[in-house]
Hints:
Layout: H1 6-11, H2 40-56, H3 85-98, H4 104-113, H5 117-124, H6 127-130
Amino acid sequence: MTTPTATSALQEPPVALKPEGAPDGIPPAVNAPPAAAPTTAQLIELLGHFVVQLANQPAHEPRTPEMPAKGHSAALKFDDEPANLESYFTELEYQFDRCRITSTHNRKVQAVCYLDAALRRVWRGTDAYGNDDRT
């Protein structure tokens, strides 16, 4: 039979005592003194601290919407019919305003991205496309 040494006694976890009459399956309570309830003044001070923290936070800026991806159900469509060109540009203007696209170059890039490949080549080949001073 071995006798416990000082080091082995230190390595054993302390035994938690279960209160008398406590049902099985309930873990024993931690042996700590109960915390004192905060005073009304402490609660008011804590609430004031949180209110100041909230007031000092910057306002949340809403995320700027992005142009819908080509092929998405909300994406613009132009079917190469001259009669539909005006409505295509009207919808583009709405989307540019919604997405805060103000640069002439970026507007041109977005305008041609919804076209089919052949029509996109034609539009990119115009003088106006290559010159950001022209719309």
